[in-house]
Amino acid sequence: MTQPPSPPPPPPERQDASPHPRVTVADGLLLVAWLVIGQVVLYGLALGLGVVGDEEGTGDRMVQVAILSAVLASSVAWLGMRGRLRAAWAPRRDGRGFDVVLGLASGIGGFAVLLVGLGLLFQALGVEPPEQQALQDAAVGGMDAVLAVVLAVVLAPLVEELVFRGVLYQGLRHRSGFWPAALLSSAIFALVHVEVLVSSPVFLVQLFLLAVLFAWLLERTGNLLAPIVAHLVFNGISIGLAMLASRFEELEEMALGAAVAGLGLG
Fold first, then answer.
1. 21: number of CA atoms within 13 Å, CB side?
2. 75 and 163 in contact (C-beta within 8 Å)?
């Protein structure tokens, strides 16, 4: 009797694509060094070539925008060539609408608690707030204010979240728990803000706690969208208030001038 044909062999098991290479602590430290030293070197080169002058002005701000853009582009290109850009941007999943809402709420809440609350506490203790050039430029208005918005609200959140949360924090996170990775990466994040470190180091506490919040957002959502939005909102509120305060001062001066003129006419 003829034997029935044997069933076809089962299809080979589906082989999942290899995961994206993880970012490492070395990746993070290298990008932090490039973020700090690269800006100094590129600005020094621009100064040596006469592109910028000894006195800061609008042209200098434009050069700073170009330099930070170059640092961001080169960091993205370097991660892309190493196949680690995806792992830095979205280690567990792509962004969702909820992540944007969470980022917005965290940025507003972080500003209210960390900048306003701690700022008022520090000032009550007699600590002077730090001098930050972006806020001063925003108060001036005009092109300086536009460049301050580009630097502080667009470029800084992108490059800092990529470097400090996307790469450095995650590199540390692969080797330790959340808190050691968040605390160490946040401390480095705070210390590289030289303007605050030099003018009022007590306010580094604000930056440190803010960075911990951003690390938590990445841990909570699995991608950089929420911390970038929170960072953008935090800086945007700061810049907006500086511009608004300057506008109120202008209106106050105009009203005072009109009153003086009215008295003169009387």
1. 11
2. yes
